[in-house]
Design goal:
This protein is of the alpha+beta class and 459 residues long. 32% of the residues lie in helices and 24% in strands. The protein folds into three domains: 30-207, tricorn interacting facor f3 domain (Immunoglobulin-like), CATH 2.60.40.1730; 213-298, no CATH class; 329-453, Neutral Protease, domain 2. It starts with 25 loop residues before the first helix and ends in a 9-residue tail after the last helix.
Amino acid sequence: MNPSKALLPAALAALLAPALSQAASPEQLATPLTTGSVRLDIASGRVEGDACLSNRPADAQGHFVLNAGLNVARVTDDEGKPVGFDGWYDPGVDGEARVYTLAEPTATLCVQYVGAFPLYPKHDAMGDFKGMMAFNGDSARFTEQSAWLPQAFDPKARVRGSESRYDLQVDCRGCRFLYLNGSPAIEGTQGRFRSDNARPILLFGGSGPITHTAQVTLLNESLPTPKVDALSRVVQQVADVHARYMGVPLADRPTFLRMVTLNQAERDRDGSEWGFATWPTIAMSGSIGNVADSLLAGGEQAERRVQYIAHEMGHYYFGTLNRPQGPYYWVLLESSAEFLSIKALRQISGDAAADHYVARLQATVDALDTPLPALDAVDGHSDLGEMYRYVYGPLLLLSLEKQVGEAKMQAFMRGLLAAPSPKDWAELQAIALKASIDAEAWQHWQASCVAGGRPRCRG
């Protein structure tokens, strides 16, 4: 998500089947698969897992990561043969996860583990973030960033395999419903979840209500009909705009998840909000109703919420259909979603709303006293922070549109969606040329807007 806009029943107890749906394509079957079971207890914060990971990338055969608060009991292959591993003494660390090294490669990696985490029923923790395995007293929230399931890890590139197909049994004592990202929520304390599409695997177990409409699912909060209708209406509008622009309809519709954060008491005092997207989940602190209230209020409040929802829904294209890699990762993932959100804002809320938002982005860049990396010189070592991803990158895309026209820019965005992630400037230019952006126009944009990390286009 864009931090600047966080303003800024049945229970199935059957044994797991060994295979997923036969409808899965060869491309899907080539992606990682996570199977097994996880058990958790809302009242104690205890977590137990027995999960297997297969189809790991070639560069991540010798390592895996798991949340640092989880203790590994044993590692085996899919036949139960023990596999030696290191990671207890002087361990490697990748953010919130501990890095484990296998003594020998195995096609399928199975990890049994257990852990317990603090409870914050008064929501008075010092902080909260996406990498926490969070127990707030009446819910549990584990995102892909928290590495609550074993993930493949490439130690050279320091990249986790955070997306996977899955076939998982989840048992949650104290939960009224269970939800795994990309699957329908299940009412009850147990559920089996399967996905033939690779997803960032988020787990939420809660005690609140569930609302379904044709456009959205609302989890863990009950809203009056006018608010549900407002959310549904905007989601449909955004879906229509994105589908027309990108030429591909959204197969997913968002699930809005209300989460009471571990530090919600502090957030309520200072009026702050926090949210994140793990598509198709859009998680929001405090209340989904606040978003609906803004939409109903109209004006700039509504415009900011429309743009926020449109950004997150843009991740269906850049982040789901196309999974960016390489030096342009952040531009492809976040700047592209932000560009799409501005296009949606213009269509839904009008030119004045979009122009005002773009002017705010430009003013933010103009206020910088240090240069930003030049897009034509970006490599794997470039620091493309939040300013670049959510502010400067979208402005660069808008400047290209201004120079080549809307039709060619639309073709370029569709080209980015369809192509493998470009590894260098020449490959990025090749996508532009295929979109009928001639070399002279591309080079003029490079010289007048890109070179040297210009904050504004020259000439």
